[in-house]
Amino acid sequence: MNRIQLKDQLENYRTPYEEEAEFIQDFIELTSDPLAFKRERLEGHFTASAWIVNKKRTHTLLTLHRKLGRWLQLGGHADGNENLLEVAMKEAQEESGLQSLSMVDSTIFDIDKHIIPNRPHVPEHFHYDVRYLLEADIKEPLQMSDESISLAWIAFDSVVDMIGYNPSILRMLEKTSKSEILL
């Protein structure tokens, strides 16, 4: 996949979630920026994430992010790679050690535009995060990367207690619960 294919997927992406629909056009416009996939684009850039679930759709794998101090899905910067599905798979494997990862679908599962706070040498900026739904074997041992404080499979019914209010995580959880009926 490249930026043209990503733009096509974004143009065809439909969501019933108002907060997501509000920034689809921002994502589409960003695909035409030559620096869109590089963190050197200081006002904001593409990232990719993996919403990882077990095969029975009862748990999701979350990381307690070291820099942000919040429970999040696994993912990271594109660093020039325009194939965001590939980025999501790579980041998920690097951050979890899971070898059993498989994609459920090659289409976009979710998108989120969120602000990253100012840190030394990095100004406040936006992440245009494209998310993909992945599956993994919940019994496979996890290997935490240095980007995490913790890494854990969280039961769907415990996610809210674990993360508090994070609308994008709750949206992905709801989407997973709805797609459960279709599987």
Automatic annotation (TrEMBL):
Pfam families: NUDIX (PF00293). It comes from the Bacteria. Residues 43-176 form the Nudix hydrolase domain. InterPro entries: NUDIX_hydrolase-like_dom_sf, NUDIX_hydrolase_dom. CDD domains: NUDIX_Hydrolase (cd03674). This is 8-oxo-dGTP pyrophosphatase MutT (NUDIX family).
